[in-house]
Amino acid sequence: MVNKLLKTLKNNPQVNWIVGKDKNKNIGIVNVRYPIILINPTIISARDFLLAPVNDLDYPGKIEFIPRFRRVSVKSDLLSKPVFRDGSFDLDDPLTQESIAIQNVVDKLQNNSIFFRKILQENFLVYKKLIKFKHISLIDDSGNTIRVLNKKSHKHIFNGFKIKL
Q1: Spatial separation of the C-alpha atoms in residues 106 and 124, rounded to whole Å
Q2: Do residues 14 and 23 lie in contact, with contact meaning Cβ atoms separated by under 8 Å?
């Protein structure tokens, strides 16, 4: 599967990420500067929110500005240590592009569409208003509520929690 995905990327130089599934493995490849192969990737930290233009293969021609992070760490079954990308706020910066592509790969493998991320953007606008509080309450789709330090809440919001008002 990895070779098939790499070949597809090679034949489509305008594409900088691709995903596929093979047995029990979710496979993603990010190819901005060079191929980064991610097996069952999970984002373990994300910082410095920015809005980035993102398209979704399920919605051809549709581009949305959605929340992404310029700094991201992701763990993968294939790698012995997490991949860390420290991009800038310049969307043309290759490290920022890799950071955004990594997030796109994880979103796609978790079946999160650009519209799901658009909803998160609305949460982030609320989040920015709540920044003065030390702790905030978050709720997931099942109704589970957690109380977390505000400065650590972004990773929960990134993984699907919503701010409970």
Answers
A1: 19
A2: no
| Contact indicator for 72, 122 with CB cutoff of 8 Å | no
Token pair belonging to 111: 């079946």
DSSP string for residues in 42-110: EEEEEEEEEEEEEEETTEEEEEEEEEEEEEEEEE-TT-SS-EEEE--S-TT-HHHHHHHHHHHHHHHHT
State how far Cα 56 lies from the chain centre.
13
* CA distance to 43, 44, 153, per residue, from 127 (Å): 20, 20, 9
Domains of the chain in start order, with CATH, are: 2-127 (3.90.45.10)
Ramachandran angles phi, psi of 52, nearest 5°: -130, 145
Tens digit of pLDDT for each residue in 17-68?
Answer: 999 998 889 999 999 999 999 999 998 888 887 888 877 666 677 777 877 8
Q: In whole angstroms, give the CA distance from residue 30 to residue 70.
A: 15
Which pTM value belongs to this model?
Answer: 0.70
